[in-house]
From TrEMBL:
The keyword Oxidoreductase is assigned to this record: no
Lineage: Bacteria, Bacillati, Actinomycetota, Actinomycetes, Kitasatosporales
Entry superkingdom: Bacteria
Origin species: Streptomyces filipinensis
Swiss-Prot/TrEMBL GO biological process terms: coenzyme A biosynthetic process
PANTHER family documented for this protein: HOMO-OLIGOMERIC FLAVIN CONTAINING CYS DECARBOXYLASE FAMILY, PHOSPHOPANTOTHENOYLCYSTEINE DECARBOXYLASE
Protein name: Flavoprotein domain-containing protein
Length: 212
């Protein structure tokens, strides 16, 4: 990372007048760091006031963060990633797939990453992510030792190989379970946004080059 804290493959999103996205879907999964999500929703609103925001929380994420607080900050109801929460006749997986042009999964737990990488679609959100055309940015939050597991590494590599998916590197963070500093924390959402802005800009330049 450079002195701004933005990975060298991304950009500082605060310096971009038009990041290229109009509708962002923020997804929180059940890592403890999801408790900071209200801060990041507020940051998105202050940094990109014209950008529409929606939030999806997994059932495990709702143990660590207040849906009411997030709803107040984004001025929309928070969606729970559960088929049983959908109204009769509703198709939340279709809505969540079609509405955004950017999805930010922050944080993404080990369990969530495995299901996403394997192509599972057993919840509205996972079904949407397997079929959306939106750019998807993922910030893994991994327990101590997980990165040495070849299965976990395979899941991360599979996601990185997918077109339209940006997987952020983990960052050093103090583990709540061990009290030790481990390299498994979720990259700050601002930096994940920078990676996605950079990926979008590169894809747009490539498309313009092909059109010439």
């Amino acid at each position: 990372m450079d002195s701004t804290g933005v990975d060298s493959t991304g950009v500082d999103p605060t310096g971009v007048a038009d990041p290229g996205f109009r509708r962002v879907l923020v997804v929180g999964t059940g890592a403890l760091s999801v408790s900071f999500l209200p801060f990041w929703i507020n940051w998105l609103g202050n940094t990109f006031p014209e950008m529409e925001k929606r939030v999806v929380l997994t059932r495990s994420a709702r143990r660590f963060v207040s849906a009411d607080a997030i709803s107040a900050l984004c001025a929309r109801d928070v969606v729970t990633d559960d088929w049983n929460e959908a109204a009769p006749g509703a198709t939340p997986h279709v809505d969540l797939a079609r509405w955004p042009d950017l999805v930010l999964v922050h944080p993404a737990t080990l369990h969530f990453l495995g299901r996403y990488a394997l192509g599972l679609a057993d919840t509205p959100l996972l079904c949407a992510l397997q079929s959306t055309s939106a750019l998807v940015g993922v910030a893994p939050s991994l327990p101590p030792g997980a990165q040495s597991n070849p299965v976990v590494r395979g899941h991360l590599e599979a996601l990185r190989a997918r077109p339209g998916v940006v997987v952020a590197p983990t960052v050093p963070a103090v583990s709540a379970s061990t009290g030790e500093r481990e390299d498994g924390g979720a990259m700050p959402l601002s930096e994940l946004m920078g990676l996605c802005v950079g990926a979008y800009a590169r894809a747009r330049r490539a498309a313009e080059g092909d059109a010439v």
